[in-house]
Amino acid sequence: MSLLNLHDVGYSYDGSTEVLRDLNWSFEPARFHAIVGRSGAGKTTALSLLAGLATPTAGTIEFDGHDLAKLNRYHYRSRDAGVVFQSFNLLPHLTAKENVELTMRASGKPIRDKQRLALALLARVGLTAELADRRVLKLSGGEQQRVAIARALASNPRVILADEPTGNLDIATQEDIVGFLAALAKEGKCVIVVTHSPEVAQYAEQVYQLQAQRQGARQSAPPLR
User: Fold this and answer.
1) In this structure, are strands 4-13 and 26-27 parallel, antiparallel, or unpaired?
2) What residue segments make up the domains of the chain, in order of their start?
3) Residue 215: helix, strand or coil by DSSP?
4) pLDDT 10s digits, 97-119
5) Which of 22, 45, 71, 108 has CA atoms 20 to 30 A from the CA of 12?
6) Residue 83: beta bridge partners?
7) Do 103 and 148 contact (CB within 8 A), yes or no?
């Protein structure tokens, strides 16, 4: 059964510049999904809609049977949907561990030992206790991305949304990150990754493609698989 559903979703800037049109997509738990397309095709806009950071100008998005636009979207992002941003969006003056703990506090979920769980999540994405105590500015790009994923998992969300999670990483680190996201899907998470990389998309069980249309509009093609 689908967890996230898009029904005839479209998005326009200022009511005139059409970015997305007629998206009818379904995303299920325990599956790795990819949204692909060239730069400027509207991939990040689609992810923003799924994250509740923007509201469709046409159609509806349903989360677990409820109209996302009518839900408390702050609670949705802090409890149900973990977001991994392309630019990491970590707080630079905090350590890796503190970044993860902050997300736990924001979720409002009862977590008895936040420090222990933060260290466990960071260890799971391959960061040692020593690295966990470093300020994120002292970490490499690949290490910061691992922190961002650990932070996205901090509230045990049902959905993981990742925007170009391997965009600036070397091949080995890219494989580690995508392999980890694929493992989360196997554990039951609904994983949705925006990417322009065929190497990343090949991990996905379902691929949606955005194609540029005339007059600047973007429209989804049928699922590639």
Assistant:
1) antiparallel
2) 4-220
3) helix
4) 999 999 888 888 888 899 999 99
5) 71
6) 161
7) no
pLDDT of 225 reads: 60
A 10 A CB-CB count for 188 gives: 11
DSSP tag of 40: T
Cα–Cα distance for residue pair 3/157, rounded to 1 Å: 12
Q: Phi/psi zone of residue 156: left (φ > 0), alpha (ψ -120 to 50 degrees), beta?
A: left
CATH superfamily of 4-220: P-loop containing nucleotide triphosphate hydrolases (3.40.50.300)
First to last CA, the chain: 17
All residues at 6 or more sequence positions from 155 whose CB lies less than 8 Å from its CB, including other chains: 78, 79, 82, 103, 104, 107, 109
Q: Of 122, 160, 146, whose CA–CA distance to 30 is shortest?
A: 160
Distance (Å, whole) CA 70 – CA 81: 16
Give the least confident one: 7-16, 71-80, 154-163, 209-218: 209-218
| Closest by Cα among 130, 169, 162 to 148 | 162
| Location of structure tokens 């790795």 | 32
The length of the chain in residues reads 225
Q: Residue 22 — φ and ψ, nearest 5°?
A: 55, 50
Report whether 69 contacts 55 (CB < 8 A). yes
Q: How many CA atoms lie within 13 A of 98 on its CB side?
A: 11
Alpha helices in 67-189 (DSSP H): 73-75, 96-107, 114-124, 129-132, 141-152, 171-186
For residue 219, what pLDDT band results from cuts at 50, 70 and 90? low
